[in-house]
Design goal:
By secondary structure, this protein is an alpha+beta fold. It is built from 9 helices and 4 strands; from the N terminus they run H-E-H-H-H-E-E-H-H-H-H-E-H.
Length: about 325
């Protein structure tokens, strides 16, 4: 009977502890995290992402997973989660974002199913906070992924803009060089007999000066088709070169305007790139995050288990007490 008394006393102590120190509840919201670094979007310019060269694909994946974990704990997401909770239930009005963040936890190993958990003394509050966190994280991350997509496209547009400026400047330099060469030949040829045919060397020189700046455009194609035959006199070539110089003089100002237009557009693109990059939170445009499953809140500590442990402690205390009594009853030598 005495041993039973100690066991019952331990069980009662366990029940009292379970009542005075109620267990926390853990609510889990599962989300699916996908990362396909070789996926190509529907945009033609986005096909460059279809076959990128990664120095280490695992490092890229781990970086994105760690980045995603950091993002879902950002103050912006926690603040939005708290606002959602406060609009849902007045209970959350007294909570701060620091208190809410301390309740949240993310469990993951790699891409696939992640567990977003919230811990609270009340199962309803745990479920509310975990659900609100999941909804906010999915919404914000998906917006960031769209922004990452826009960032890539704007970056491509910036690169195209830079290439176009460089091409226009190089084209203008080429036309300036050709114009100088043609003008020099015109000056020297004007002092020679106009009815004579060009020498072979002079003919090659003129043709090289004209074909050097020639482009695959209707105007230049027409000029090349109008080239005088080899038997034509020098006067015919001078008249032809005059039309070529006119075409060059027409094209140079257009190139200057094109460079000005492209350079004026660049600050706007850079501003859009900065905004999109900030919204992307450095996430990959190939990242996917969506809700997967919702698990009911569960107690993190079983009251029955606590009572059993305390009952065992009562039994152990009885055993120790018996050993002490037996030791004291033994006669001293």
């Amino acid at each position: 009977p005495l041993i039973l008394l100690f066991v019952v006393a331990g069980s009662l102590a366990g029940a009292a502890l379970a009542y005075l120190l109620p267990a926390d509840y853990r609510s889990v919201q599962q989300v699916y995290v996908g990362l396909n670094p070789y996926r190509s979007m529907s945009d033609a310019n986005f096909l460059a992402l279809a076959r990128p060269k990664y120095s280490n694909i695992d490092d890229y994946k781990n970086w994105q997973m760690t980045q995603l974990e950091t993002v879902i704990f950002l103050d912006a997401i926690i603040d939005e989660t708290l606002v959602k909770l406060q609009s849902l239930d007045p209970y959350w009005q007294s909570y701060t974002k620091e208190q809410l963040k301390d309740m949240l936890d993310a469990d993951w190993r790699s891409a696939g199913v992640w567990s977003l958990a919230a811990i609270h003394r009340q199962p309803l509050r745990a479920e509310q906070s975990a659900r609100a966190w999941r909804e906010t994280a999915v919404s914000v991350v998906n917006q960031a992924v769209l922004a990452a997509h826009d960032t890539f496209l704007i970056d491509q547009e910036l690169q195209s803009n830079a290439d176009a400026i460089l091409a226009a400047k190089m084209r203008r330099e080429l036309l300036d060089e050709a114009r100088t060469g043609l003008a020099n030949w015109t000056n020297s040829a004007s002092a020679l007999p106009q009815n004579e045919r060009l020498t072979r060397g002079e003919s090659w020189h003129v043709n090289s000066l004209v074909t050097y700046p020639a482009a695959y455009t209707p105007a230049w194609t027409r000029l090349l088709d109008e080239q005088p035959p080899q038997t034509a006199p020098r006067q015919a070539y001078l008249e032809w070169i005059e039309r070529v110089l006119f075409q060059i003089d027409e094209e140079i100002p257009r190139l200057a305007l094109e460079v000005s237009r492209l350079e004026a557009k660049r600050p706007e693109l850079q501003g859009k790139y900065t905004q999109a990059a900030e919204k992307s939170m450095s996430l990959s445009p190939n990242l996917t995050l969506e809700g997967f499953d919702e698990l009911p809140a569960e107690a993190m500590r079983s009251s029955g288990l606590l009572i059993l442990i305390c009952a065992i402690c009562g039994l152990l205390f009885w055993l120790v007490l018996q050993l002490v009594l037996i030791t004291r009853k033994q006669p001293r030598p």
